[in-house]
Amino acid sequence: MARILVIDDDQAICEDVARFLERAGHQVATALNGKQALRLFEVEPADLVITDIYMPEMDGLDFILALRKLRSGIPVVAISGGGLLPPKWLLDDADDIGAFASIEKPFDLDVLLRVVERALGEGGEKDRSM
């Protein structure tokens, strides 16, 4: 069982992903933006982070950079449906700064679980197959 932090400004996505991952045996915490997630991570570090990119207060890219300063080895799975920019551009940026994998919204929860399991099993080494 891993501790996973899910960050998304859409509370319904946080709740859906959390429920799904909990049913798969993981312990899940959620945050609605990067600032909230950093505070939560400092109190209870996670084994893996799933973060949206386009969010208020602190976006996912800034979160990934801040997380790398705290603990560089934590695998991050970036998710995005876009916003002002196409999701592929945002996810490519996440990959460039060290995300393990990136998944465009909407996504299949089973695909997310396979990526999570791969990230946890490989210790966060970059997934070049996505």
What would you note in describing this structure?
Helix content is 44%, strand content 18%. The chain has a five-stranded parallel sheet, with helices on both faces. It has helices at residues 11-23, 34-43, 60-70, 87-96, 109-121; strands spanning 3-7, 27-31, 48-52, 76-80, 101-104. It has 130 residues and is an alpha/beta fold. It has one domain: Rossmann fold (3-Layer(aba) Sandwich). It contains five helices and five strands. It starts with a strand and ends in a 9-residue tail after the last helix.
Kindly list the characteristics that best describe this protein:
alpha/beta, Rossmann fold, 5 helices, 18% strand
Overall spatial form:
globular
Quick one: biggest sheet?
5 strands, parallel
Termini separation (Å)?
24 Å
Round the mean pLDDT to the nearest integer and report it.
92
Strand line-up in the sheet with most strands = 2-1-3-4-5
**Second CATH tier, the architecture:** 3-Layer(aba) Sandwich
Write the element-wise H/E pattern from the N-terminal end onward: EHEHEHEHEH
CATH superfamily: Response regulator
**Uncertain parts:** none
The amount of beta strand, in percent, is 15-25%
Number of helices: 5
Secondary-structure-based class equals alpha/beta
**CATH fold-level label:** Rossmann fold
Identify the CATH class.
Answer: Alpha Beta
**Roughly how many Å is the radius of gyration?**
13 Å
- Secondary structure: number of strands: 5
Helix share, percent: 40-55%
Q: How many domain units?
A: 1
